[in-house]
Specification:
This protein has six helices and 13 strands. α1 runs parallel beside α6. The structure holds thymidine-5'-phosphate (TMP).
Length: 237
Amino acid sequence: MEKNTELYRGKAKTVFTTDDPEYYIMRFRDDTSALDGKITRQLERKGRTNNHFSFFIMRSLERSGISTHCVKLVSDDECLVKKLKMIPVECVVRNLAAGSICRRLGIKEGLRFKKPVLELFLKNDELHDPMVNESYAQAFGWATSDELESMKTQSLRINEILSDLFAKAGLTLVDFKLEFGVDTRGNLTLGDEFSPDCCRLWDTKTMERFDKDRFRQNLGHVVDGYEEAARRIGCPL
Ligand code: TMP
């Protein structure tokens, strides 16, 4: 499949059209950012690591019955994906307290919740991705009630599948963010990526971080941590 024009350039990925209107090519760049893009840096090997990591996770989810946009890897830093109409609401699932929920509720990092917490955020950098709820999403037309129901069910199912996958590798899936879209046939489909950029992964015994908090909090070589997480789950790089 031929890559055509650049359609969209985000903070860490670029999406290109292809000669087939039903498919895009998503390129993972080495760019990394924090604080809504205020801090940016180039991290060698990050693009290829996240591309392989995300593809490996999406493939595992597909095997467990989750529809994802990933079709195949087309190079070390590019993946062929199905075209989706993205829903501008991000789903965050949390198993343990970390990040913004600690600041918001004044709770201690590491607290394990009695059941997973599911939150919705509007995808909007200028507004710093404010937290929203289902009523907002329907009132503003961001998602229908059926789509929201399906996003919730799939997010919690993905949490079960991936918590188990990471646990087998000695990693605790603390939290993560998902983005969904609707494919050309009208099916709700997992889009974007699943990489250490958009989740928190802790070593189950030592609590060492293998995710983007290494960058946000200066906790050591960022990509080495991502590669270690990939190695542990058996993801080829
Ligand atoms: P938070 O603690 O900053 O709210 O983030 C929770 C999890 O979701 C964390 O793993 C990072 C991820 N996340 C993103 O990757 N992008 C986002 O825009 C948001 C809101 C969260």
